[in-house]
Each structure stands twice: as C-alpha cells, then as structure tokens.
What does this fold into?
Amino acid sequence: MTTLYQQIGERFLAELANSKDVSPQKLEALKPLFADDKKLKPDDLVKIFTSAEEDEVK
Amino acid sequence: MIKLEGIHIEEVRGIKKLDLDFRKETFAISGPNGSGKSGIIDSIEFGLTGQMGRLMGRGTKGLSVGQHGPHVDKVKFPDAAFVRLKIFIADLNKSVTVTRFVSSPKKPKIEPDSPAIRAALDEIADHPEITLSRREILRFILVEPTKRSEEIQTLLKLEEIGEARKALNTTLNRLTSAKTEAEGREKNFGNALQLHLQIPALKREALLESVNKRRKILGLTLLEEWTAETKLDEGLIKSATAPDLNKESARSRMHSTQLAHWEKQKPKASLQTWRSSMRTPLFSRPCARETS
It folds into this structure.
C-alpha cells in the first residue's frame, strides 16, 4: 500500500513523463529521489535538471 | 475498516499492566490527570502501527519509542514493554491478535498471519494520523488562519510532503535564476561574436562564411559545418609554434646591433667602458643607467 507522499510523487513523475521538457533519462534519475525513505534535496534536483545531455546542445 | 476488540498493555508509558475489553464498540476514556488516558491511546497506536504519534513531529526532537515508550521503571528493559491488541478487520471478516514489543516495534507477532492481514495492517501503519493528541487538536484550533494549511500538514503527519514542496520551490527558484543568468551570458557572448565577426545576425551560414574568410587568410582549412564542438581556431595553435632559438646566434646578433648603435651615439672612451662591461656575466653587470 502506497503512502500519500508516494502517491503524490508518482503523480508528479507521471505528469513530468508527459512533458516534452523532461527527457526519459532525467525522469529515470528523478525516480529514486522520490522514494519514500529519502528526503528530497534541492541540490539533487538542480544537479539533474542542469546536467546537459548529448542531444540538448545543437 | 477495523474495530478494536480488546487490548493488553504491559509496562508501556505510564501503565504497568492493564486489560481492556472494547467489544468492537465506540468508546471513551475518562479519568483524572495522570491516570494514563494518553498511555492507552499511545498503546493502541503502537499496537497498530509500531509508532507513537506523541513522540513524533514538531517539538519532539530526541524522543523515541525505544527510549520513551517503556514505563519509567523499565526504561532499561524495553523487552518487558509490549502491547497485545485484538482487532477485527471488517474487510476480511477476521479477528487478529497483534503483539508488538517496544524493543522491536517493526516486527509484530500476528495471529493468524496472512499476506492479506499484513496488507491491512500496513495500510493502517501508513496513516499515522489515526491518532491525534489533545495538543495537536488545540494547536489546530488556535492557529492563525494563514498558517492553518501548514498545521493540517503537521496534523496529518504530512510534513514530508511540505518539505518536498519546499525543496521543489527552492529548486525552481535556483533553476530560474540560473536560466536567467545563462540567457544573459548567451546574449553577451552572441553580441560579442557578432560584433567581432561583423555579421548582421547570428546565422549559421553567416558565421561560417565570416570565420572561413579569416581562416582562408591564415591559410587554415575551411570549416564545413558549425556544431557545438566546432573550434574556430582549429589548426591555428599547431602552426603557430615558436621556431627553435639559437641562443648564441641571437646573443651575437644583439651584441653587434647594440655595438653599432653605441658607436654612433657615444665617444670612444665610453665605448671601451661599454665593451668591458659586456664581457662581464649578465647577472653581475650594472644596470644601463649606471654604465652610462
């Protein structure tokens, strides 16, 4: 049974998955951060969203 | 949905030993201050979830079930503190006995045991808001309206959601300022490049044409495409290596050049002085002003 926090996290990730701005690689990197036993840290999120991917610079 | 059938409490909080029969009915507990009313609530919650809400949340830093769950006489013997709770799970139509020790709150003894029963208990454990203390209720009533939503989070033990929201907001602010800064830098670099290459707009074709025009003058190979990895000065550094220097030859040429210059400017007496000074090692030679 999922907690309310997990449910919100899953919903958030599902909405990000539908966004064109978030790549599948970034989404995979985000998933562990929303695990129930972890505290979400801005540093981790910033690191993921500022990391350049091969197909981003054109 | 569950109903409480009965409870046996031993050495938990302020209770030495107590048996209560709830008969699956709604009940109220009353008594004078310090008689153990809250201890019963703590025990019910502990039996169901393995936690005690009063030892968690705001203002409870440093409190734990292991240290503060046992009766004061048994603080050093948490194995003696336990709760045996008999519940009725309506969805499964089953009566279940859960025995939980303070020393191992996450390993209850469940009789009978089955995955469905454990799933039902896990669901209860995921909702610690099943118990509210008097302090929590009073705080919610007294809090100013603007902070009520925050208080609801605390009340429902949803602090982690609030913290996650704060983390996301902080991330958004940091990324927004980083984006603004990056856009400013991009604009500045673009303007500088445009000015330097003297092109009307930062178009790929215009950039290539302008750069290749300069590369052609320098005798470098022309660039065919413009990508993120393109180096405008590629090949320039390699061809611009310094030639080997013959120190003796250079020194001799410098000497003769300076000598010719001196002969034109100074009388012969001074020329002799200068010649002798040039024979002395460089590090011991006086400076030009002193010799003249």
Chain A has a mean pLDDT of 81.
